[in-house]
Amino acid sequence: MTIKDNVRKVMAGCGCNTTTAPTQKISPKFRKALWIALVLNAAMFFVEMIGGSHARSVSLWADALDFAGDAANYAISLAVLSMTLYWRATAALLKGITMTAFGVFVIAKVIWSWWLGLTPEPMLMGAIGVLALIVNVSVALLLYAFRDGDSNMRSVWLCSRNDAIANIAVIIAAVGVFGTGTMFPDLLVAFIIAYLGVSSGLSVIKQARAERKIDQSKLVSKA
């Protein structure tokens, strides 16, 4: 099964128990997990921005922007946890748009870096990739138990899982750059990260829009 199939499988549909109530009981553990994820992602954004600049790595810059987006997404999720399904889905819709926009930006960055012909520094690139992988796997394991909620909760889990996949790809790209002495492994991985951002973002948008319509129809039927 491909990465694309895995992404679609995770995001496909929404269980009926996620849309039957206007609000949900929030686990204190989930709220705490989101705070931890928020702090770790914000810290790694600065680490990868600085490291990516020194290493001249597009995939590290792409991953840094992903960390920034995830930190913002966790903050949004914390803000809407106790709200109705409509507002949780609205937050997920915003996150889906952000993920899609991030992917488009990275594709543009890949094209620009190819035009400039910048070859990254593989050792620094790989070291930061390993650190980022450790952080993202820790966050993904922390959020794993909450992956089967509504579109808001599921998008949080999806972001964390995709980040771990992206970090593995960054490490592979560093090895590829070291072995070939060219920029192309770095550009390829950056493009893959961009593709994940676009496809996952569109999946989140689709589910969030469906949940918003369901919640609105319930309000109309009660009126």
UniProtKB/TrEMBL annotation:
<feature type="transmembrane region" description="Helical">
    <location>
        <begin position="71"/>
        <end position="89"/>
    </location>
</feature>
<keyword id="KW-0472">Membrane</keyword>
<keyword id="KW-0812">Transmembrane</keyword>
<dbReference type="GO" id="GO:0006829">
    <property type="term" value="P:zinc ion transport"/>
</dbReference>
<feature type="transmembrane region" description="Helical">
    <location>
        <begin position="123"/>
        <end position="144"/>
    </location>
</feature>
<feature type="transmembrane region" description="Helical">
    <location>
        <begin position="33"/>
        <end position="51"/>
    </location>
</feature>
<keyword id="KW-1133">Transmembrane helix</keyword>
<feature type="transmembrane region" description="Helical">
    <location>
        <begin position="96"/>
        <end position="117"/>
    </location>
</feature>
<feature type="transmembrane region" description="Helical">
    <location>
        <begin position="164"/>
        <end position="181"/>
    </location>
</feature>
<dbReference type="GO" id="GO:0008324">
    <property type="term" value="F:monoatomic cation transmembrane transporter activity"/>
</dbReference>
<feature type="domain" description="Cation efflux protein transmembrane">
    <location>
        <begin position="34"/>
        <end position="208"/>
    </location>
</feature>
<dbReference type="InterPro" id="IPR058533">
    <property type="entry name" value="Cation_efflux_TM"/>
</dbReference>
<protein>
    <recommendedName>
        <fullName>Cation efflux protein transmembrane domain-containing protein</fullName>
    </recommendedName>
</protein>
<feature type="transmembrane region" description="Helical">
    <location>
        <begin position="187"/>
        <end position="205"/>
    </location>
</feature>
<dbReference type="InterPro" id="IPR027469">
    <property type="entry name" value="Cation_efflux_TMD_sf"/>
</dbReference>
<dbReference type="GO" id="GO:0016020">
    <property type="term" value="C:membrane"/>
</dbReference>
<dbReference type="Pfam" id="PF01545">
    <property type="entry name" value="Cation_efflux"/>
</dbReference>
